[in-house]
# Entry
Amino acid sequence: DVTLASTIGIGFSIINILCIFPLATLNNGFTAGIIKEFKVQNFRSVGILIHKTLLIKFLLLIPLALVLFFSDRLCSVLGFESQLLSHLKVFVPLCIPGLFLFMIHSTLTSYLSVFNIIIAPIIIQIIATGTFWAISLILVCHFEWGVEGIVFSFNMMQAISIFFLYLYILLDDPVPNTFFCFTKDSTEGLWEC
# Structure
């Protein structure tokens, strides 16, 4: 279905431009801060920086999610056809839960990459992407879920990525004393990191 393919392509483009790109650029400052704190062996500050980055991204994702929720109106102004608009109105907002998970995944993989830990995140992403394709094929081709099947697969891919990445960090503890629960310090000077 051409309209379904167009919806997926345009929908993910909207998501990338309006949400993923702005949030991913925050990783540059985050990784620089981690390097600075790690050089002076301030492991607790590395963990606090992870918390602050997650909180800032979460707070920024809220208005971005609102923009995404109404992105069909922007597309309407741009003259998109009505059938495509009706699919986008379903597709883009339903991807928002997966974007919250992507935000966590992006932060954790940036944290690990600072310490040259890249193999485990790559393997986890390959597994999650393979799961996305498998679930998409089953839901779209076999059960004919259409746009909802792709969205469900996207959200599941993000959930699988987070689950295995978090499990890896908890079980392997690749950078000791830097990964711990949020504390009172996690919110102090939030916008100063």
